[in-house]
Amino acid sequence: MRRISRNKYIVALIITLAVFVIGVLIGILVTEKRTEFLELSGREQRIDFDSLQLQYLYLTTLSDECSAVNKALEGSINRLEQTRVKLEDYIAQSFTDNKDFSLTKREYMLAEMRYWLLALQTKELCKGDTVSLLYFYSNIKECDECDSQGLILTYLKNKFKDKLLIFSLDSDFIEEPVLEIFKEDYNIEEVPTIIIEDQKFEGLTTKEELEKVICSYYEDKPGECDEL
How far apart are CA 9 and CA 4, in angstroms? Predict the structure, then answer.
């Protein structure tokens, strides 16, 4: 009886170890697939940005096709934001401190900043009627307000579409030095914080307040502002 009982324990131990090993292997495989996806997306974003820079250079020297550049810029920013959200989810679900994810996130932070600067330059050159919004959030600190603010910004983006350009920066991402320049320049001391053109909003800002501020910057008010 003792031998049978011992055999049962051995079998149970083997099964437990097998399940654990399989789980680890699946986790590693999923992480590798996610890393491959992010690397490919990062490469696509870099190519998109290079293309936009060339379009901007062409625009400033030989052409006046502002609508084409604005359309390309909007599409690139939207793809960048979608991939940023996926990246944040991957990092949150990862059971290891994945250096690849951290490097990829750094690339995306830099891309957000580049696109933000390019959007300002394009707006000045083309006299575009768009509003740029810079959003500082946190993934490390307990920030329920950041989650709520993110939902509000998603609603506003869906409402104003290409009239509103949103750029999101993780204020706790210390791996990127350029972020500190942004934070010092705008004196970011708490999250969430939103910068709209030259105005700063600290803490959770309501949908109604943001709508009024956004609409105040449009020269030709879109229909979405009529109800305000």
Answer: 9
